Amino acid sequence: MGSKLFVGNLNFKTTADEIRDLFSQAGAIREVFLPTDRMTGRPRGFAFVDFENAEDAAMAFARPSVPL
Prior knowledge:
The protein has 68 residues and is α+β, with helices and mostly antiparallel strands. The protein contains two helices and three strands, in the order βαββα. A three-stranded antiparallel sheet has the order 1-3-2. The termini are far apart. The model has no long low-confidence stretch (mean pLDDT 91).
């Protein structure tokens, strides 16, 4: 398993900081990428969380999901 996780079905009001706070409980995060729509600038409802190592990503993947 790699160190980057796809996180889908996010509320459009979810921020990168909220995602970072939640997933940092599983380990050190390198980057949180929250894509936005080119036309409106609104978040697209998904994100990518890049962990510093694959073990932390696996731990985050194994945890039950928490709604944001």
